Amino acid sequence: MSNVAITLPDGSVKQFDGPVTGAELAAAIGPGLAKAALAIKIDSEVLDLSRSIDADSTVEIVTRKSEDALDLIRHDTAHVMAEAVQALYPGTQVTIGPSIENGFYYDFAREEPFTPDDLEKIEAKMMEIIKRDDVFSREEWDRDDAVRHFTDIGEKYKAQLIHDLPATETISMYRQGDWMDLCRGPHLPSTGHVGKGFKLLKLAGAYWRGDSNNEMLQRIYGTSWRDEKELKAHLMMLEEAEKRDHRRLGREMGLFHFQEEAVGSVFWHPNGWTLYRTLETYIRARLDKANYVEVKTPQLIDRGLWEASGHWEKFRDHMFTAETEDDRVFALKPMNCPGHVQIFRQGMTSYRELPLRMAEFGSCHRYEPSGALHGLMRVRAFTQDDAHIFCTEDQITSETEAFCELLLSVYKDCGFEEVVIKFADRPETRAGEDAVWDRAEAALAEAVEASGLDYTLNPGEGAFYGPKLEFVLRDAIGRDWQCGTLQVDFVLPERLDASYIGEDGEKHRPVMLHRAILGSFERFIGILIENYAGRMPMWMAPVQAVVATITSDADAYAIEVRNALDAAGIRAEVDTRNEKINYKVREHSLAKVPTMLVVGQREVDDRKVALRRLGGKDQEFLALDEAVARLAEESKNPAEK
RNA sequence: GCCGCCGUAGCUCAGUGGUAGAGCGCACCAUUGGUAAUGGUGAGGUCGAGAGUUCGAUUCUCUCCGGCGGCACCA
Questions:
Q1: Pick from A153, A355, A616, A628: most CB atoms within 10 A?
Q2: Sheet with A136-141: strands ordered across
Q3: Nucleotide nearest to A576 (CA to C1')
Q4: Which phi and psi angles does A191 have, rounded to 5°?
């Protein structure tokens, strides 16, 4: 029997006469750790504490404090839930139940739907199983035996899963008491380790294997943590997220509404539209500075053009169409690119004009599936901050670099500092030859490398005409939103016959770079509202300042102050209502107005204002001129600074 | 589109087989009050739409529409 040397994370080495289990290793290090140990980690692989280590290796003992512990806890909670469900509802089949961000889910096949009341019963049963504290024991099974076993007990989904596992895969089962599940593991030592820090959250439908052609299963989502304190903190976070829901804030702040006669389309109210226009003005200024030209193309275009572009074939079901009396069919544009190519095609374009950066705040309509609609985040009528850069292959790199720089700067101005980039390559169904895709992917990869930014691969997620970069920003409460995109397209210029005259006097195909920074104004505004919880930065706020009087003696002066703010380009309102100042402060604070200028007799006498910031406790007493100058500076959009 | 839940006043919600209530908001009156709710009075609802069961439906059943949570989709 050969010796085993185990290196611990602190660099120390433990020698053993032969193979040793994780539990034995922990015990050898110390009794405290032996008690706290949940699993072991060799390289980056987490394994059961009962696994035996038979070769020299670097091993970390996973305890409840470890990052890896959460994954184990969540996965085990899913197992416990599955047992509970099968105990309460015989005949229910189990399928899969992974750990996910903040929790877990398990998909079940059962005729009768679960109800919210069932969740409580299941939780109670889970508590019993956890209290029972059964050991999770691992068994390796023969593949055929495993398939037969699950088929015999009527678990056809499990049998199918095993059947489809790669031949090289070891079939492992985990037992907890009398209940057993197919599982790759690893698991905690016993069900008791799950603890009480979990809660079942919601019921949902989910397709077997994520395919909408398959039957629908019932999914139960839960959240699970190290202890009740962490659970409580997470539930608080969920409440916080609900408070910043843009649909709720949009209504409370009177920014916009939806109604059933125009499902998926926004009715922008005055304040909401002011926010929208402010953002548009800012983006337009940034594009101007970055040497884009702006255009506007038709809403309705004959289906012939969509057939030529390839969109009709692929997206016809999601296009709104209109038929005219002369039997022509027009489509409401779902995107702007074919329109931009038409402008590009007018007259002859010289290589000297490239790169040509053609921008449009393009109003698009897409018949999105009803279940996809979600406030401003997913609508059927939206406006993109779209642009197409017509350029040569040689220019892809420099245009990509310039775009990345512009995009990051815009995000920063909007309050987003954390951005990750994903490289999405060719999807299964696509247009264009593989050789063209090779070139497009290589060019884009080279360009993003040249920009010096980190990126991860998002395989198979490219557009049907070309690979793309996806720009994902992280908001104030840690949620990720994909907004920006840059797509390399060699296909559409070919299909729609766009060409330019090169240095050699011959016709050449330009490359098109499809790109957007915000994505859609609607969605980006939704993200902004949630990011700021409705408390927009000064430059975006629909109403930037309210002048509020203490008594009616200050009315005339208050109006003068409002007019001075207005003349300085500040969006200001005046509140001379016969209400107490407490009432006004509360109301405008709830409306999330960033600054309030309170004026009473003292301010009238001294030509001053009492400046109060949203959420602040103190006031600043300033001369009127100074207050106006200061607020005017703060109100400028970042492109004006 | 699929699965589940939901639809009562502008908003948040209570309630009932015999056609409805609260708080906030809104209107009016009084109050002129120094930094997150002054008091009083009043108006406001085909109980999402349609059909069915019933002597009678907001309440029970069905269909449709819409919303919510997921799944699928996202040029």
A1: A628
A2: A136-141, A171-176, A179-182
A3: B32
A4: -60, -30
Model ipTM?
A: 0.95
Residue A227, both tokens: 């202890």
A386 is catalytic: yes
**Residues of chain A by 3-state class (helix, strand, coil), percent to 5:** 40, 30, 30
Identify the segments of chain A with pLDDT beneath 50. Answer: none
Q: How far is CA A108 from CA A90, A157, A200, A206, A327, in A?
A: 12, 10, 15, 9, 50
* Each residue's pLDDT tens digit, A461-513: 998 889 999 999 999 998 999 999 999 999 999 999 999 999 999 999 999 99
The spacing between the Cα labelled CA in A49 and the C1' in B18, in angstroms, equals 69
Element (H, E) at A612: strand A608-613
What are the residues facing A620 on neighbouring strands? Answer: A611
Q: Which residues of A482-504 are buried (b: 16+ CB within 10 A; e: fewer)?
A: ebbbbbbbbbbbebbebbbeeee
**Is the minimum distance from the CB of A277 to strand B below 7 Å?**
no
The residues that bridge with A514 in the sheet, in sequence order, are A388, A487
Among A334, A38, A72, A55, smallest CA distance to A197 is for A72
C-alpha A205/C-alpha A220 separation (Å) is 9
CA distance A565 to A31: 71
Q: What is the pLDDT of residue A2?
A: 77
Looking at residue A1, what is its pLDDT? 58
Cβ of A546 < 7 Å from strand B?
no
Q: Is A79 a catalytic residue?
A: no
Q: Specify whether A327 is catalytic.
A: no
pLDDT digit string, tens, across residues A411-463: 999 999 999 999 999 998 888 889 989 999 999 999 999 888 999 999 999 98
- The residues pairing with A223 across neighbouring beta strands, listed in sequence order, are A103, A199
Which nucleotide has the shortest C1'-to-CA distance from A315? B75
Q: Where are the beta strands (DSSP E) in A418-575?
A: 419-424, 455-458, 468-474, 480-489, 500-501, 507-508, 511-520, 545-549, 572-575
Mark the nucleotides of strand B covered by protein, meaning any atom under 7 Å from a CB: 1-5, 11-12, 30-38, 65-75
DSSP secondary structure of A287-321: HHHTT-EE----SEEEHHHHHHHTHHHHHGGG--E
For residue A186, is the peptide bond before it cis, meaning its omega torsion is within 30 degrees of 0?
A: yes
Place of tokens 């089962």: A173
Q: Is the CB of A184 under 7 A from strand B?
A: no
A109 touches strand B (CB under 7 A): no
In this structure, is the CB of residue A487 within 7 Å of any atom belonging to strand B? yes
Phi (first) and psi of residue A209, to 5 degrees? 60, 25
Helix (H, G, I), strand (E, B) or coil at A511: strand
A364 touches strand B (CB under 7 A): no
